[in-house]
Amino acid sequence: MNGVAIAILLLTFVFLLVIKCPITFSMVISTSLAMLYLDIPVMTMVQQMCKQLNSFTLLAIPFFILMGELMAQGGISSRLLKFADVCVGRFTGGLAHVNVLASMLFGGISGSAIADVSSLGVIEIPMMTDAGYDVDFSTAVTVTSACQGLIIPPSHNMVLYAMVAGGVSVGKLFCAGYVPGILLGVSLMICCYFISKKKNYGKGKKLPLKEALAVTKDTVLAMLAMVIVIGGVSAGVFTTTESAAIACLYCAFIGLFVYRQMTLKDIPAILGRTVKTLAMIYGLIAAAGAFGWMMTYLNVPQIATNFLLSVSTNKYVILLLINIILLVLGCFMDLTPLVLIMTPILLPVVKSFGMDPVQFGVVMMLNLGIGLCTPPVGTALFTGCAIAGRKIESVSKATLPLYVPMLVVLLLVTYIPGLTMALPNLLMK
């Protein structure tokens, strides 16, 4: 009986996705059909959806989304770009390095790959093409470097994972993302250096010391938002939600009164975009709550665990297989639903091999971040192509060399726990 119900649940879900039904409705419909077959009151689904949203941890998500919007509107993008130029612009392929570093800094503030591409891409892509860089390469660098925002804190996706994983420390997840995020950025810069060397892309100009110091001073205020969130959470001064709320107030203040690139008239539009994004995310979370409960009721996580263990008992083989599964799924589904659906299935497997849930959170984010850059559903890739006015095919081709450092970092993070766990173990014992 359970076998038929599992088939109804999963096959209906896949079929609805294939016919391009919105993923929230796909989860609700497939869950409803499975419940009807098992004669479970459909009201149970409503209860599970409400239960999933009844979490204090989720209160941090709207504040992080709002913070990203305030940063994008308040003049942060251009300042981070200038600061990145001061740091790495003078090297071979300087503007490509500037692109990566700016994404590292902006992602570390906004926590969103899409916000990164949308906010920085409109500046970076024309700036690189005007300097003689190939437009497809410029777009590819913008898109791939945006993945850093998913793992460099603060990231609302990390908050979401913490909730689904059963109360994993958000503070530890934030700390765990730093080293992999920086490693990813450096790896992308190295790859960009060799590509720039091969294509004879020039160096940027070195700014005079006085000008460089002025740019750095102007950027410090922007960077303090990240300090508020990470410092507050790591030191135990704020909860994650409180730190996000305070950071929003801070970002609004510097955008309105210090940088003055945002006015009170912009606030309704900013709140509107925040609510729109939030409604989509919370709808997914609610639907995934019911879908996940149904999978647990049918013992799908245990079946998946047994299946993977039947393939091999070797830890390294299983972890490689999990990475492959997440990479493939990331090509066809967006990040948020995959976090909600796959975490309950795969977390028990990795825990049985001794992987810390914090480490797995970073591994999952990096996997799904690569998915955002991968056709046919990569939202970061689509956003970059829309900004540049280029076809998916040509940008995807230019992106191929940049997948190499991303996959290398993914394997390092998967197989070397110290890259993720050293910092949280040091700061948050």
How would you concisely characterize the structure shown here?
By secondary structure, the protein is mainly alpha-helical. It is 79% helix and 0% strand.
How far is it from the N-terminal to the C-terminal residue, by CA? 46 Å
Share in helix: over 70%
Largest sheet composition: none
Give the number of helices.
22
Question: What Rg, in angstroms, do the CA atoms define?
Answer: 22 Å
How many domains comprise the coordinates? 1
Apparent shape: globular
Query: Taking all residues together, what is the mean pLDDT?
Result: 84
Please mark out the parts with pLDDT under 50 across 5 or more consecutive residues, or reply none: none
Q: What order do the helices and strands come in, and which of them pair?
A:
Elements: H1 2-18, H2 23-37, H3 43-53, H4 60-73, H5 76-88, H6 94-110, H7 113-130, H8 135-145, H9 148-151, H10 156-164, H11 170-176, H12 178-199, H13 209-235, H14 240-258, H15 267-297, H16 300-311, H17 315-330, H18 335-352, H19 357-372, H20 379-388, H21 392-415, H22 418-427
Helix pairs in contact: 1-2, 2-15, 3-15, 4-10, 4-14, 4-15, 5-6, 5-13, 6-7, 6-8, 6-12, 7-8, 7-20, 8-20, 8-21, 10-18, 11-22, 12-21, 13-14, 15-18, 16-18, 17-18, 17-19, 17-21, 18-19, 19-21
What does it look like?
- This protein is mainly α.
- It has one domain.
- It contains 22 helices and no strands.
- Helix 6 packs antiparallel against helix 7 and helix 17 packs antiparallel against helix 18.
- The longest helix is centred in the middle third of the chain and has 31 residues.
- It is globular, with a radius of gyration of 22 Å.
- The protein starts with a helix and ends with a helix.
- The mean pLDDT is 84.
